[in-house]
Each structure stands twice: as structure tokens, then as C-alpha cells.
Amino acid sequence: QVHLVESGGGLVQPGSSLRLSCAPSTGKWISVAVAWYRQAPDSEREKVAVKIVNGPGVEYAESVKGRFTASRDMTKAMVYLQMDNLKPEDTAVYYCNQVELGPSGWRPLKFNNTETWGQGTQVTVSS
After folding, report:
1. 3-7, 64-68, 91-95: which range is least confident on average?
2. What is the C-alpha separation between 124 and 92, in angstroms, rounded?
3. What mean pLDDT value characterizes the chain?
């Protein structure tokens, strides 16, 4: 079972930038894509970006389009989320997960019929 490790969060002012990193514990991706999610207090988890691991494809939620950029470094098995022009509403715990394409879109891989999530990284945007 692959565990994912997120890093790079922090406390920043509105308009600032952060770059989040995501790495598999095994050093190898087993899915075709990796998604970034976020969850704010008292809110459901929201998918904000999907990055194809072995190609250039990428998708974004409307709420982050034009401000967030997902990328990958195949030499390091890393996936990144560059977040620019951050807003207070971007405040959340950010997670990454390996995903597969299902009938309703991208969904987290399951191992033994169970989704596995890392601890995430906190992003707080506040003046």
C-alpha cells in the first residue's frame, strides 16, 4: 500500500504564493494521475486539481483555475501544486491522492476497498 506525503503548507498573506509537494512513500506512482484535494473546516473535501503523471494533462476546479498550477517531476516521482494569488478562502488542509477515472470522474484509488489519505498540509491565508 502506498502512502502519500504532503508538504509545503504554511501561513501566508493574501496575494502570496506557496508550492505544495506530494510524494509516494514507495517512490513510485502506481496510478495514471494524482489529484490535489482540500478540506476547510466544516466543509466537504474538494478536488482542486488532477495531474496526469505520465503526460501533460491537467484539470482544475473553477475556484482555482488561473491561480493554481499542478506539475510533476518524473525524475523525483514528485507532484507539485503551485498556488499563486492566494485568497483567504483557499485556507484548508490540502491532500494529494492517487486517482483513477471512474464513471463520475476522477476518484481516489482504493486498497482493500478503503481509501487511504495522508496527513495533509495546512494552508492558511490571512492578513
Report:
1. 3-7
2. 7
3. 94
HEC profile for the chain? CCCEEEECCEEECCCCCEEEEEEECCCCCCCCEEEEEEECCCCCCEEEEEEECCCCCEEECCCCCCCEEEEEECCCCEEEEEECCCCHHHCEEEEEEEEEEECCEEEECEECCEECCCCCEEEEECC
The amino acid sitting at 124 is T
- The per-residue pLDDT for 74 is 82
Q: Is residue 1 pLDDT above 80, yes or no?
A: no
In this structure, which amino acid lies at residue 63?
A: S
Residues in the chain: 127
